[in-house]
Amino acid sequence: MSDKTNAAHYVDNKEFFAAMCVWKQQMIEAEVAGNPRPQCSRYIGECFVKICNHLAYKANFVNYSYRDEMVLDGIEQCLRYSHNFNPEKSKNAFSYFTQIAYYAFVRRIKKESRQEITKINYLSSIDLHNLLNDIEGEASSRDFLQWVREQIDVIERDKEELNKLTTEENKPKRRPLYFDAKEKKETEEKKETEEASLDNVLEI
To answer: Model-level pTM greater than 0.85?
Structure first.
């Protein structure tokens, strides 16, 4: 068996998709019968956990101190919107829920960044040096001031990472190349039809 299959966070997309199809059918039958929506299976829940944990180890997210909260948000969002998955539109359940987790992570980062910026702005607005002198005297420790400076550096780094994620999120997606080929072919066929019609007119 391959190392990939043995990986702690590996999800077999075929098995995951099959499980989602079974659960989706159960939801449809429950809705028709007027019964409450059935819970997802333990296997599906484990897949959500693996997807979110795996995503949290990506370079974009691995260094955040609140990574556990990001994972929990991702799992919650996967469970909340799992009933929207449509097997008729997509067979890649892994990609579908990875995207849900990704946006949950980004929202958590934005929320934490706003809170951190508020705290840092408050600390920056007061004279900490004189405040510590008044409280502890000239011989007071400067560990707290050093900590504040380090936190400001962390906030700036997180803001840069968030800007990268936001830019990637808003980047327009390149449409598949076959659309370009199809459009080019249709244009050429239309041109040939028009030329043929013009030749027929001239012959008459």
So the answer is: no
